[in-house]
Amino acid sequence: MLNRNQVAVVMSTYNGEKYIREQINSILTQEDVDIHLFIRDDGSKDSTLSIIKEFDMKYANIHLMLDGQNLGPAVSFMHLLYQINGYDYYAFADQDDIWKKRKMITGIQRIQSKDEPALYCSNQILYIDGKETGYRFESAPPTDYLSTLFANKISGCTMLFNDKLFRILVNEQKRVSDEILRLRMHDTWVMLVADLMGTIVYDNESYIDYRIHSNNTVGVKTKSTFEIIKTTLKHLNNKKALAWRRCTANEIINKLSIKDERKRKTIEKLSNVYTLHNKIELFKDKGILEKSGLSKYVYFTYILLGWL
What we know:
This protein is an alpha/beta fold. The chain has helices spanning about 20-30, 50-60, 75-80, 105-110, 145-150, 165-170, 180, 185-195, 225-235, 240, 245-255, 260-270, 275-285, 285-290, 295-305, and strands at about 5-15, 35-40, 60-65, 90-95, 100, 120, 125-130, 130-135, 160, 200-205, 210. The protein folds into two domains: about 5-210, Spore Coat Polysaccharide Biosynthesis Protein SpsA, Chain A (Alpha-Beta Complex), CATH 3.90.550.10; about 225-305, no CATH class. About 45% of the residues lie in helices and about 15% in strands. Helix 11 (about 245-255) crosses helix 12. It is globular, with a radius of gyration of 20 Å. One of its GO terms (molecular function) is hexosyltransferase activity. Pfam families: Glycos_transf_2.
């Protein structure tokens, strides 16, 4: 019998009692791989932890991590990832979706031939009131670092990555700071690292029912210009929240050694929007404007005010 790939699935939970049984069962029944499910509860107030403990007692391949802290989802996911080692592939799981049986093996087959750090990600089937209502994306969304820096479209729950990418993400000198994770979700950082340091394989098919409910609409709705301005005004007293793109670009420069000179110079421009030279360069760079998804007027305003 051939050795099967060992996959570490990383899940952060918080008040997920309503759907978590169905999700865990769908993860445990993945085909043609050996699953090891690592769960960190982020301070649930409902029966989520009791449900997880039931599974933990029953299955040897479920590992429950508890430290009593409420870190927020992005920090929780990454802190859990840092505690894991020794697997062929790694994946993130939300607490409320449903995985198709071949989700993991499909991702593995798409990146197993890659010699460099590699990330697989996919489309999502929107799941509302117990029914599949169609795909999230009709065509492939952008996965390049610039598009991701401005507005990541890829959900962590669709990701699977190899050991080479894992080792970059967990390297103590290259780990993303908790401060950035409080500004951006963990999946944004993983996408950035994958594109800048390796390769991304996107699958427009989906092997996940992405459950939509009142507490889970992150990443689905596209913001209008009015909503972008409204959000900006809301954060006027928080300079880092306003300038999360610049903060993230700075984090990239400080943590990653980018070999592609063009990419590195672009990130450097975005990491310092206060100098007159860089402002002029950003005004002139139509490529960044196009990738930003912002209207020309919002883009120019953000540059002028140092909010990019």
